[in-house]
TrEMBL record:
Alphabetical list of InterPro entries matching this protein: AlphaKG_dependent_hydroxylases, TauD-like_sf, TauD/TfdA-like
Residue intervals of the TauD/TfdA-like domain: 22-315
A Pfam family per the record: TauD
Record-level GO BP terms: antibiotic biosynthetic process
GO molecular function: dioxygenase activity
Transmembrane segments: none
Co-factor(s): Fe(2+)
Name of protein: Taurine dioxygenase, alpha-ketoglutarate-dependent
Organism the protein comes from: Allokutzneria albata (Kibdelosporangium albatum)
Keywords attached to this entry: Antibiotic biosynthesis, Dioxygenase, Iron, Oxidoreductase
Amino acid sequence: MRSSSPVSLLDVELRPGKPPLLRAEIAGDAAEWAARAREGLRAVVAQHGSVLLRGLGLGDAAEAGAVIRRLTTELMSDKESFAPRRIYFDRLYSSSAWPANQPMCMHHELSYTLEFPGLMLFACLGAPTTGGATGVADSRAVLDALPAELVRRFEREGWLLTRNYNDEIGLSYADAFGTADRASVERYCLANAIAFQWQPDGSLRTRQRRSAVVRHPFTGRRCWFNQIAFLNEWTIEPEVREYLIECYGPDALPFNTCYGNGDPIGPDVIELLNKVYEANTAREPWEVGDLLLVDNIRTAHSREAFEGDREVLVAMADPVRLADCAPSVGVA
């Protein structure tokens, strides 16, 4: 018997190199349709890891937000962010401010935090002229394609994220942690297994070790879940990296990743990770009104370079805190 939901697994269009697609047939209010479609859409995301919903006709942030709230259990606030976002409404954000001519590598949102979104939602309010697609990649396929020895090392050691917060490059600690009060920042760090050090100039340096592979909370499948490649110095555009190192030194980059024991990750490893991501990427050009739902643990996402006016509303939902995502040993 067909579900009372207006969508089902049978409605999904599966196309090579494209994310799963569902065409909405709406008669009336989009938010009301979303409420009825919630069960079916959840089943599609559970089955395929992501789904692009086309035909909702979302015209503005208020309409997109109403639909998103009908599809989610709990929206999350952005925290420990690495790039600024504009706030549309409470816990509804713009995509991260990132140069349009530079792609954003595949990553899992907030995978360096101990509590992170289980579901990501992206609503297209303005489509770029060229490029700008939000790609998706199955983290299970990525894990299977990586060399076993490399995976074993990351499973054994985890990965280490180092961040430098100052008022000149990247975000200040006040922007990232939502407060300029040092004591509050220190309490947050201590509660979230983040080692911190205040610098003589008042800036902040942090280090946090996280697991690189986790088990999905519902399926139990091992997933490659991290931001090792995206937040590594070798993914930064070469001329930008050279400029930052010249100005601030190799240890003062706004962010960098290492093996869990602190050893640097070579450019060959980052190149390999990005090649495996690309081989497993599915992408579809945005159309105004589209809504993309992504299982944040099973599926990584990226953003292509683009031209034109691109406006994508982002929501982080359904928080998850996994036991195997906590660091197995303390950070130094």
